[in-house]
Amino acid sequence: MLQVALRGGIEAEEVVGRAAARRQEVERRQGEVLRLVGDDLGEAFVEKSLKTLTSLSQSTDDAEIATREWAARASEVQKERQETASAASTLKELSEQLSALAELGEILQESDVMEAEEEIAVVEELFNLISDAGRLCKGRDARIFQQVYVELQHRRDDALLMMQNRLLESIHLTSSALEVRRCSPMIADALHRTNTFEETVTELIRQVSESDDILWAIRKADGFAVAEDGDESDSIWTIEWSQHRTYPYDFPASIQLEESPLETKLPEELLCVQDIANVAFRVDVLCGVLMTQLFGTRDSEYATYLRGLIWDWLARDLFQPPLILASDGAGTSSAVSTTSLPKRCVASFYLSKVLPEIVGVGDVEAVFEDSAAVLKMVARELRAELLFRARKSVSNFVLDDEDHVLLAPLASPWRPKERRTSNWFPSCLVTRTSLHIMEVVEQACREAATASQDGSEDQVLPEMLLSTAIEALEAYRVDIPILHRTAFQGSLKLRCLYHNDCFMLSHVFGNIRSTSRLVPTAMKLRSSGSEVLLEAIADEKQRLYQSIEISSFGDGSLTHYATPRVRKQCDLELTRMFAHNQEVCRVYAAMLPAGAAANAIASLCAEFLNALTGSILALAEIAAEACDGLAFLLAGTVANCERLATPDRLREADPDAAQGYQTAVKRVHAFQEILNIRMEDIADHAKQGKYKGMLDKEEVSPLEFA
Q1: For residue 478, what pLDDT is reported?
Q2: How many angstroms separate the CA atoms of 383 and 379, rounded?
Q3: φ and ψ at 433, to 5 degrees?
Q4: What angle do CA 413, 418, 424 make, to 5 degrees?
Q5: To 5 degrees, how large is the angle CA 412–CA 413–CA 418?
Q6: 83-136: pLDDT as tens digits
Q7: SS3 assignment, position 145
Q8: Gyration radius of the chain over CA positions
Q9: How far apart are CA 465 and CA 379, in angstroms?
Q10: What pTM did the predictor assign?
Q11: CB distance 622 to 562 below 8 Å
Q12: In 261-290, which positions are buried (b, 16+ CB within 10 angstroms) versus exposed (e)?
């Protein structure tokens, strides 16, 4: 009976009914028995009967539960059958689509003739398949669809990469042309749907802007024409320009104002400068070709994004000084005259206002606030160019090249002092660095003078150019001793060249009346050159005293000069020291101007004679037999110095330098006389003032004692 109840159905209901009737019968009989028997027996019977009834009730409940479970299970089985059938149908559909997609992939690999619309249709279908597979992957049996879903994603990525390449390969740039192949607008739709449109178009513009050929063509090409080839669905538009580049740029005779169907009305200030006005027309042509060929129209949201990229590119690279200067960077200066710069700056300012409207980017901040800002930019560019050239020359000051040192081009024929004017410049050696600095400064001054005469109230350009000229001179004066410190300290020739360069630059720019602002800097140059030369002479004097100090002249050996060994040693050392001084004087004579060389030679020879007499004066004792030898040594030294400090050189020297040398020679003659006379005559001559101006009283007494 329990099994029947568990199975459920009509039979189970009949069993339940019979059990209920049985229970009622039992309860009736229970009442009759209780009336016939006593209480004890009746209670036992009742308890037993209740247990039986409870058992029957529990069996009935279990049967009802089993019935409900069976019904739920049947419903689940039915649902599973339906899902299985749906999955089988979907899998069959996916299999068919994957087969078609695989065939498409093979076709694309073997041929490139498929229409872009067909590619897009397949990709759209692919997106739908991915959506279905993604939905199924969230069900209970996701493992069945996971592999298919992953494969579909791979196929999608391949298709997107293919379309990205189609868009990127639609543009081909050479040095003389830009080819743009027609693309289906559906490609942009597909890329936009997968959030890869902006990335792809940005890369496309990067490739175009990476080369300077297109910018050069926009600014300066002789022609800028568009040619169309092919039918409407597969057309190629080519922008061609002249590849020939002229240095310097021929402006403005070869430039003609081009015709363009621009709806934007260009201001007269822009139209009056033909080549800058042509920039507006050419940018319009470029934008039209790119937008029409890539997206089919200039008005789509995709074209709007492309406009923004084009504007960023042009604002970054087009509005630069070369646009205004018409310079290719090959020359050493701007190709246009300074007088035309203000007009070209104004035209560039208006171009920056008009171009956003031509490109179609809407409300965009202008590149320049006003035309003065353009002029300031140009002035800064000219300043940077000139200072770059100046500092490059300064860095090449120390060059081991024969052509780097040459005779000063300003050198005048020799004249006596009384016939020399302020324009006379002595012959000397200078470096090409100084000539380069001179070119930079002269160009800056010349262009500043030209710019100040154009009648413009704005003096930004001339002020900037004059400041640049001063900076170039200061760069030479200050930077060379710092940049070339090591070579400078160890080379007398370099210091002589620096002196000559400073001397020449100060001579040139200290006498230009139109640029009086340069005079203080020119005087600083002269002062710096003189300081360096005086330091070089002082170093040679110091080297002379060091040589004497470590020689026999510094250790008292001259006391026994009459001894052959001592005499030979002293003569050898004196010859070596004089040979070095002679070489130094030759450098002075060969490199410095005549006056500076004469001053240096006279000063060094005077110091040599004073050092030699100082060594004798320092002796505590002079042997009688050594006096004649020392007098002869002094006479020979004076004769050698006179071969260096010749009368002609002394006439070129400053009075103080010549007087110093002559005083040193007289001092030596006084020493010779003292060494050859008796001791009692020394005091008499000193009292008579015979040695006045040559020997002090404090020097005569020790010498007499020795």
Answers
A1: 92
A2: 6
A3: -60, -45
A4: 35
A5: 95
A6: 666 666 666 665 655 565 555 455 444 434 445 455 555 555 555 655 555 555
A7: helix
A8: 54
A9: 7
A10: 0.61
A11: no
A12: eeeeebeebbeebbbbbbbbbbbbbbbbbb
